[in-house]
Amino acid sequence: MRRPNSIAFPVAIVLILGMALMMVISTVLTVAVFLLTDGQSRKKIAVESVVELLQDGVSYDHTGKFVLEVEGVIAEKIIRLSEEQSEFWYFVSDGTQAIIHGAVPASVQHIIDTTSPQVFSSEFSYMAGQQQFLGLRKLNAEDPPKLVVVGGVTFSNAETLLVVLREIWPQGLYHLLGIVLVATATIAVVAVKRTIATPVRRVVDSAEQIDGLPNGRRISDRDTPIELKPMVAAFNTALGCIDNAFEAQRNFLANASHELRTPLTKLRLKLDLVQDPDVREILVRDTARLASIVTTSLQLARLSGQALTFTMVDLAAIARAAIAEHVPSVMKQGMDIEFKAEGRVIVPGSEPAIRLALDNLIINAMRHARGTEVLVVEVLQARIVRVSDEGPGIPAAEREKMLRPFVRGNTSASEGTGMGLAIVAQIMTAHNGSVALGEAANGGLVVDLAFPKTAKESAFS
Amino acid sequence: MRILIVEDDRELASSLKTMLEAAIGVADVFETLADAEAALLAFKFDLVVIDRNLPDGDGLSLLPTLRQLRPRPATLVLTALDDPTDIVSALDKGADEYVGKPFEPMELIARARAVLRRYSLDETGCTQFGNLSFDLINRSAMIGANALSVPRRELAVLEALIRRAGRVVQRDNLEAAVYNIDEEIESNVLDSHVSRLRKRLREGNCSATIRTIRGIGYMLVQE
């Protein structure tokens, strides 16, 4: 899986790699400078290093005896390398006690004895056999002053490099400083990430809340860093535009509703003046259909343009009230209607919306389920409202698309608007529920409105 | 019966006037809320039919005035706004009934009659459904010219049914109308009241009968 993009992670990685690269480059440069120096200088470096080690290594033990104790792996190694060379010698003295290693050449002994104590550092060359060697005499400022004289050091290039590396180890301090810088920068990056991430997260959370409904919701730009304020402002402007668009749609719906229905009412009333009963019947039916299309279109548009307010409602009570309202017209159709409920069924929901869904189902049944004797509405404890008729039903292949707007059944008897079931489907979606069209044992249509099983799963929280 | 129609669309108003005059009684038409209010204060009306979108405001703003009138006319609101909240607000503000546009002429007449029946029962204590009449003040029922002898509980059932004649009365509401809160109601007591009442109506040659709507309640209908 690809690692999700983050601001902090690559920045921290770049910082660490950058510092590591700098450490390598500085070390390489130091070594390169050494490699470019001539043989005489390298010898000098080696001798100076050994003198320094010896000067640092001498101390007094508890009896006051003058001892040499070199500490550190590299220092010991350098001393050991020196001591392996036959010409190597040193002379360490505090004026009263002395430690001598190897044979101090006589000519050098003379220099030691005669050099003025005012001279703290002196370099000299001496011959031993056919070879010329470099010697170094150093006197430090301690009390008593310690004199170290070294000679006969001949290091190979690799050995000198070891010495050089020991010399330049204080550069590690700079590296340490680099590590501190990297750590600080990493912390800063994480902090910046949080500063950026928190307001971004708020915008994201708000964006997730957008359900296509107007509600005047805005993101607070309190605590938002100045750099991110334009983003929050732009987001709020967008939310405002959504609200305005919905407000315009709501106004349009109210006006359209009035402007369409008043002329329809006049038309319907005037149709009673038509003399020919056959013509009148056709016109009345067409007007009724037109009226029904207007009503259901507006219902559908309104449902998508407003948030439903949920309360705890009793499906049985809603169904009972809906049926009671429709009984006279159902009976006029020559049908009976029966209601079955296993007691109260409480769900979170919008009573007007559920009522509208049931109204549509009952009107659908009256319109399409010709031949139905008893229309049965049941409310089951499994949070299902079931409407079963004894009509021709809907073929299995067509059921799914019947839930979409403006789709009507293929039967010639269809005079509906093709929106009843779409409205039902929309209402059930708003309740996190579902609509299932099925077939009754006698071939009729069974519509199940299933509400979510538990309160947790539902939209009510 | 005198009817007040508040409707600014003249054609619609004239159709309404013709229709209501043929079925119920004399009707006067006013186009604005102000004119209608003046007329309401000057004359006595039995039924007021109000449209909502009027030149000088929402028809519902007439409801407070109507509520103060004694006797109060029955109020029927015509509305093109059939959003459930619009309907609820109309009923809450004191409308007795609403009819959504466009409506079937028969439906408007039927609803107007139902509202008037409820009112006449409240005002005069007397109402008529087919050849069945009910006198609330003397607590008696008659079929044609013959008095119908009915025990107290059955009379209460009949009253509840005739108040909403032609519409379903839910079981719960019927039980509430017949029994007080403390009384223990046996599950089938209401059914036996209804069945005895049904028998009495049949034997008295009543044109109205009680239909059972299974799972919901009962309804008084014309046979």
From TrEMBL, chain A:
First-level EC class: transferase
Subcellular location: Membrane
EC numbers on record: 2.7.13.3
SMART domains the UniProt entry points to: HATPase_c (SM00387), HisKA (SM00388)
One GO molecular-function entry: kinase activity
Alphabetical keyword list: Kinase, Membrane, Phosphoprotein, Plasmid, Transferase, Transmembrane, Transmembrane helix
Pfam families assigned: HATPase_c, HisKA
Domain of life: Bacteria
Transmembrane intervals: 12-36, 147-166, 172-192
Histidine kinase domain: residues covered: 255-455
PROSITE patterns given in the database record: HIS_KIN (PS50109)
Gene3D superfamilies for this protein: 1.10.287.130, Histidine kinase-like ATPase, C-terminal domain (3.30.565.10)
Name of this protein: histidine kinase
Automatic annotation (TrEMBL), chain B:
Domain Response regulatory: 2-116
Keywords: DNA-binding, Phosphoprotein, Plasmid
InterPro entries xrefs: CheY-like_superfamily, OmpR/PhoB-type_DNA-bd, Sig_transdc_resp-reg_receiver, WalR-like, WH-like_DNA-bd_sf
Record-listed 4-aspartylphosphate modification sites: 51
Record-linked Gene3D superfamilies: 3.40.50.2300, Winged helix-like DNA-binding domain superfamily/Winged helix DNA-binding domain (1.10.10.10)
Stored Pfam families: Response_reg, Trans_reg_C
DNA-binding region: 124-222
Signal peptide residues on this chain, from the entry's feature table: none
Highest taxon in the source lineage: Bacteria
Matching SUPFAM superfamilies: CheY-like (SSF52172)
Sequence ranges assigned to domain OmpR/PhoB-type in this UniProt record: 124-222
Name listed for the protein in its UniProt record: Response regulator transcription factor
